[in-house]
Amino acid sequence: MSKNKDNINGGLNRSLSSGQMEMIALGGTIGVGLFMGSTSTIKWTGPSVLLAYAVVGVLLYAVMRALGEMIYITPGTGSFADYATDYIHPLAGYLTKWSNIFQYIVVGISEVIAVTQYLNFWWPHLPDWISGLVVIITLTLANLASAKAYGTLEFYFAMIKVVTIILMIIIGLMVIFLGLGNNWHAVGLSNLWKHGGFFTGGFKGFMFSLSIIVGSYQGIELLGITAGEAENPKHAIVASVKSIVWRILIFYIGAIFVIVTIYPWNQLAAVGSPFVETFTKVGIAGAAGIINFVVLTAAMSGANSGIYSSSRMLFKLSVDKEAPSIFSKLSKHVVPNIAILTISSGILIGFILNIVLSIFSKSSANLFVIVYSSSVLPGLVPWFVILLSELRFRRQNAHMLEEHPFKMPFYPLSNYLAIIALVIIVLFMFVNPDTRVSVSVGAVFLLLLSLIFFIRHGKDGQKGKN
After folding, report:
1. pLDDT tens, residue by residue, 23-45
2. Using N-to-C axis directions, what is the helix angle for 202-217 and 49-73, rounded to 10°?
3. Of 212-221, 379-388, 426-435, highest mean pLDDT
4. How far apart are the first and last CA of the chain?
5. Which domains does the chain have, with CATH numbers?
6. What angle is formed at CA 24 by the lines to CA 253 and CA 123, rounded to 5 degrees?
7. In sequence order, which ranges of 361-410 are alpha helices (DSSP H)?
8. Where are the alpha helices (DSSP H) in 145-284?
9. pTM of the predicted model, to two decimals?
């Protein structure tokens, strides 16, 4: 076996650098949730959406520190699913793997829906099914290349978003304080409180916004999947975990600050990109097309990272004898090609169904929220299992943590507080009429998976195992 392969990964190459790992995680996180979903969060809570992003950011920090602590010692493909099995229960690992697949198929569908809307900016008469099909085929071909080639592509894919968001924040601050693009009349900060106050939706609206924000941040745990294909896992994990959380918080909070400060929150359109609308309002017409291109690549990058993540989880299920063995087959490029094609087919089928259903729908204003939010609850499964697994991991591996470079801070209090906060967010998703149906779909999915698991393996998770 090659020195770049190991048994824990089922034969996958270790060819991803720490920079590629970080950009893959950024690509999975900075996607449609920021560029499209921010409209929904702003609608629910107004300018206080800034505080909401910061609150969820604290939870994100706890999850990533817990994940980083464990991956540093035992890196592998689908690592947090292994932790769920080893430190909680085999059911937890089973739910984690299938939840990841469900999440990224649904997210992939919503990302492709977003792409079709962004393409309408230039070609308003282009049929959605044509643009969606082209996007899905393109991303499938990208994923069928080698992991290193995919990582290189995603590195530059994500870099477009990162550079543009930084430039947007800088330009936005000039608009706010100097009046750039607004005849040099500074917009100022008054939009943060003029139109109904800072907390326009009250406590309930603030809590409702958290569910979409949690969905926006989901994808950062991709670091726990790419670790299995990292060249130098320990170095890559330390570098990535230490920097990625702060970068994402700066990008998200900085971009949203620009939006709600330049433009009155209650005048943002219900559907479309707030980025495009914001810069169009202040007269930077040329930037609208540029930003539309960027959010187009953002959606494609998010779907691209999702195909990578879920195909590796399907591969992991097959290696663990929990899915047909065909999904663990590797191509000559050392990628799980059957798993990749299966995930892409699922996204294509879902996208076609969405087009058919939208024809019969009287209103599609909340279509994005319904489709996207159905993935949020399954997407939270990795966060829960990471926080729970680390509790037992710390107790069972105390001797290995004596010289650990970045242990989970404030253990175990930080674990418990983060878990309680996530439970409260989920409860408010059931209360919110806009997300109730979607989160119910996610809950039914998890219940069905649990039933299938116990039928196959029994309550101890061992029956029928090879």
Report:
1. 776 766 776 556 654 777 888 88
2. 40
3. 379-388
4. 24
5. 17-457 (1.20.1740.10)
6. 75
7. 367-373, 376-396
8. 147-178, 202-217, 223-226, 233-262, 274-281
9. 0.84
